[in-house]
Structure prediction request, 317 residues.
Amino acid sequence: MKLITKEQADKLDKIAIDKHKILGTSLDWTLLEDSQINSMIQNIELRSHKYNQGKVLILAGSVGMTGAAYLSTMSALRSGAGITKTFAPSSLNSIYEQKITEGMTIPCDDLGNGYFIEDNYDIIMNHIDWCDVIIIGPGLGSNLKTSRLVSKLIKVINKPIVIDADGFQPFYENLELFKKIKSKFVITPHLGEFSRLTGINNKLLEEDLPKNIDYFMNDFKGTLLLKNVPSFVASKSKGCVNSTGNPGLATAGSGDVLTGIIASFIAQGNSIEEAAKIGMYIHGKAGDELSHEISQHGLIASDLLNKVARVISNYEL
Prediction:
């Protein structure tokens, strides 16, 4: 077990984590700090071009929630991805095209409903070979037809997947569905979503998050990023506690930005576990800087886009 030095214990105290609860689990825990991130982020090759800089496919948005598609797409680009394709319900495509000027959009016939339907399966699968990673979930809504589409897609996609937000809809009543995912994947629930996935109410979860994460990971083959203050990443037998972030990040769309960062670094060649750690740390650090420049109360998700890019500049030689 790690996290046992006095210095690390003091840092855990500052972010309100009981070191005894951490050490009482079977996971091998570390505290995620700047030096680790510095070793994970690679410089862009001198002769790099947009196609080898990372290709991200995004399935996000629905009527009333097109902003989720915008934020996750722009976040992926601001984090270094070379090119993105964002699927859009066709009745909303003009909104996507007006907002996402640096990325491509792929309209999917939605019969005027404003959300994705099962019939969109083929057009989405036609683009899977193109991408390095696919985002599924931000702002998709809870319509049953969309949920069925997600359930069908995740069983056959052979590229890394970042699942967030409404992408969890088909899993809430069927955790076994996670076992049918063939590719590597990461899920990024906030506490409420994690509560629905585990069946444990929020209060009990918060009483001992390390123990509940440990329990969840016993039967979970993917990577978990639990959004909280602090946030956690767990993968296989390892876990880490983030040392950045603040309550100002508890604002609509903040998680969509995080999802885009993670997908971008997967597309750039980092492992899913590394990308989850980078995303968690950079997102939190951007939020910390903005909380001083703007305020925790006034921070909104779109503020993070430029700030994330500036934070990443600290790790470029």
